[in-house]
Structures are given as C-alpha cells and as structure tokens.
Specification:
The complex is a heterodimer of chains A (132) and B (130). With 132 residues, chain A is of the alpha/beta class. In chain A, 34% of the residues lie in helices and 27% in strands. Chain A is built from 4 helices and 7 strands. Helix content of chain B is 27%, strand content 21%. The radius of gyration of chain B is 25 Å and the shape is elongated. Classes of the chains: A alpha/beta (132), B alpha/beta (130). Strand 2 of chain A pairs antiparallel with strand 7 of chain B.
Amino acid sequence: MRNDPLSLKRRRPSLTPLIDVVFLLLIFFMIVSRLTSEQQYDFKLMSEGTVSETTREITQFDIRLLPGGDIIYQENAIKASDLKEKLARSEESRIQLELDPETDLQDTVRFMEEFQSLENVTVSLSSEGKIK
Amino acid sequence: MRVVPPKRSSRENVIPLINVVFLLLIFFMITGQIRQPDAVDIALPFSMIESSKTGEGKEILLTKSGDIYLAGEQVSLSGLAAMNLLNPGEILKVKIDGTCKRDCFLPFFKALSDMGIDKISLVTIQGSKI
C-alpha cells in the first residue's frame, strides 16, 4: 500500500462541484434580485369641493406646475422656498394644483412631497388639469 | 551564482476566488429582493421622502401609453370603473410610470376618484433621479 505524501494530497475532496454550485447560486441571485427598494407613498387624489372640518380661515393658492417642476403663482414664476414662506403666513392653506399638459408624474410627486409634508397645508390636484 | 526560480504549485490557488464569490453571493442574498416581475416594465417615480410603508394589497399598474393592468391582466378605464376594486379600509397600491404626462395619469386618478377612492398608495423608488 502506498502512503507517500503525493497520494495523501490526492485524497483531498474536490472543491470543484461546490464552486460550481456557488457560482450557479450567485448567477441566480444576480438575475432575479432587484436592488432598488420600492416604497409606498400616500397620495391624495382630487378632493375638490371637500371642506375640512375646521373653524380656521383657509387661504387657497392656485398653483400651476410646469414641466421640470417650475411653479407659477398668480401668473409669475415663484421659487418653492418663496411659496413656502407665503404658505407659512396663513393659518391654514390649500394648494389647488393645476398641471401643465407636459408635466409628468415625477414632477407632480416631487411637488406633492415637498408641500404635503408642510404643516397646515393640503394639496389637491385639479381634476381637469385646469383650475376651476 | 545561479538563481533558483521559486517552486510553483501545479494548480492555481482558487481560494481567494471562492472567497470573493461567497461574499458576492451573501451580498446578493441579503440586499436583493425577489419579487414577481410586473406585467410590463415601467420606470417608477423617485421619492425623496423615506417611507417604511411596503404593504401588500391589490396592485394596479399604469403605463406611459395609458394601458392599465390589474393583477397582470390588461383592463380598460371603463372596465375598471365597473369593478368593485376595494373592500372597506383597503388602500389601492398603484404603480405609475414616472414619465407619464398629465393627460395619461389625470384621467386615471379621476376615474379612481369617481369610484370613491380618495387616497392611493403610490409606489415609488426611494432616492433621487441621477
């Protein structure tokens, strides 16, 4: 019976099947898994005509949202920060949002996120795209 | 003086390679999410606000061209209006292409609003558009 170091070396279990399986698993996970994390955001649909149950005075801001997120208030372009200042001056504000035909959902979501998170501000989409 | 070249093993050392592959495997297993693919591929809008809300429920999908898919099946806007979409207390999970223009998503919102749905759960991707 041979018992030299060479034959002992040969008796080591082969790692090749293990590596094959690991590679296959890696390829599987790389293909099927998605790295982007989806989340859900509460989006209030049109609420024209709804009256909030409050005794406080509500100031309405008719805003037009242009593609790229540009904001038009009273026919003039206004910065988001300036609009926030105006909103902060009133006790309770309601933004009635009119969308330009070229305004996409991404711009709308960005605007809604920015202004819906403000205290005492409600944002509602104008159903026809135009302010009534 | 004669320089003796170092002895090289007959087989390349594959252990570092296996280590890296194992690390990659662990990374993909932990960070990746295995989900059923959507009926059609859409580019979800990005959201800056971090939300931990990831509830399950009825899912509706609106593509850039205005096609509506409910549970993987294409439905029309009028067909959707005839359906009893939600049970009381349920919130509809909506996936809309972020590049959808006003005239694509507003009639859809209007139809949902007419069905008595005042709030939806819009699916977004956390982060900013690069």
